[in-house]
TrEMBL record:
Keywords: Toxin-antitoxin system
Pfam families per UniProt: ParD
InterPro entries associated with the record: ParD, ParD_sf, Ribbon_hlx_hlx
Keyword set includes Protein biosynthesis: no
Gene3D superfamilies: Antitoxin ParD
Domain of life: Bacteria
Protein name according to UniProt: Phage I-like protein
Length: 98
């Protein structure tokens, strides 16, 4: 089936469930920054990742490794893995001011 479809014409979709209050906060923060919610969320999620355009597969994996290694080390030092997912979410929302 995928062989017959043009992969570039299919846009992947990401859906997350958020409360109405979270939606309003995202909408307000994005508006204050002159961005759409999509632009704001993508910038927050991908803002510190390197551009991969024109990179070979090996270069892209190295760039990804450079981004992830410090985060993995931080997690090991802080024992983040011992926290619940809800605890991590609360901390990250508090850190982000959301």
């Amino acid at each position: 089936m995928w062989d017959t479809l043009d992969c570039c014409s299919i846009m992947p979709r990401l859906s997350i469930d958020i409360s109405p209050e979270e939606h309003q906060k995202l909408k307000a923060i994005a508006a204050l920054k002159g961005q759409s919610i999509k632009e704001y969320v993508l910038n927050r999620a991908l803002g510190d990742t390197p551009a991969l355009d024109g990179m070979s597969e090996g270069e892209a994996f190295k760039a990804l490794s450079n981004v992830l290694e410090p985060r993995i080390e931080q997690a090991r030092r802080d024992r983040v893995f011992g926290k619940s997912l809800d605890d991590i979410r609360r901390e990250e929302r508090k850190r982000a001011g959301v």
